[in-house]
Design goal:
Blueprint (H helix, E strand, L loop, with lengths): L17 H12 L5 H8 L3 H11 L2 H6 L3 H33 L3 H5 L2 H15 L1
Length: about 130
């Protein structure tokens, strides 16, 4: 028995319109779908989608879809900035209370903040 030989031709890939490529890239960049989901949904290989993203993604889209490490780094910087502002404001409130003699922080601020300001006042009076 002889087996029939099968034809070893390449798979014919369908052409995808430029607008459709940009639509898929936009969805992935905005975080609406993942590359794997887009690959299954639109019947396009992941490697093709990754190639399109490298080729057609604009700089603005690349900046918008920054990596998680960059996001974490920016958020840590923002936390440090806000902590500095909080400490500065507490110093000003403590100085004002020392000068005026009024304990307004106990009356108008939450207990945790008023305790921090009281500690700063004690440290300043030493």
């Amino acid at each position: 028995m002889k087996e029939k030989k099968t034809d070893c031709r390449k798979i014919q890939y369908k052409k995808v319109a430029f607008e459709h490529k940009l639509f898929v890239i936009g969805q992935i960049s905005n975080g609406q779908i993942s590359v794997n989901h887009a690959s299954k949904k639109y019947d396009i290989s992941r490697s093709s989608i990754n190639y399109w993203m490298k080729k057609y993604a604009t700089l603005a889209q690349k900046m918008k879809s920054m990596s998680k490490d960059d996001t974490i780094k920016k958020l840590k910087e923002k936390v440090e900035e806000l902590e500095f502002i909080k400490d500065f404001q507490q110093d000003i409130i403590a100085d004002m209370e020392i000068i005026t003699g009024a304990d307004l922080s106990k009356k108008y601020l939450p207990k945790t903040l008023s305790k921090e300001i009281a500690k700063k006042k004690i440290n300043r009076l030493k």
